[in-house]
Amino acid sequence: MKLTAIGLVAMVTTVMQLSPTMACDVIDLQPCLLPIINPPEPPTASCCQALRDQGPCMCYFIKNTWIGPTIQAPNGHKLFADCNVPYPSC
């Protein structure tokens, strides 16, 4: 019984790691907060890279996290444009 429980936990952990949302971490967008809050501030290279890296997660962020309204605001749209990253179509 103990071996079966360990096997089940290992299987669930593996499936969770393969889940696309597991790679989605809103904290990775931290370099983009200043340009969104203070629009004249241009986005940094690390912000633009974070937008590219987290691109597949943007619809998840918009629908399920506290940063969703910020991404959808005009400054959020401007940030994507300034980084030459396509705005997500969810």
UniProtKB/TrEMBL annotation:
Segments forming domain Bifunctional inhibitor/plant lipid transfer protein/seed storage helical: 24-90
Protein name stated in the entry: Bifunctional inhibitor/plant lipid transfer protein/seed storage helical domain-containing protein
SMART domains: AAI (SM00499)
Upper classification of the organism: Eukaryota, Viridiplantae, Streptophyta, Embryophyta, Tracheophyta
Single biological process term from Gene Ontology: lipid transport
Keyword Transport: yes
Signal peptide range: 1-23
Superkingdom of source: Eukaryota
One Gene Ontology MF term: lipid binding
This protein's UniProt keywords: Lipid-binding, Signal, Transport
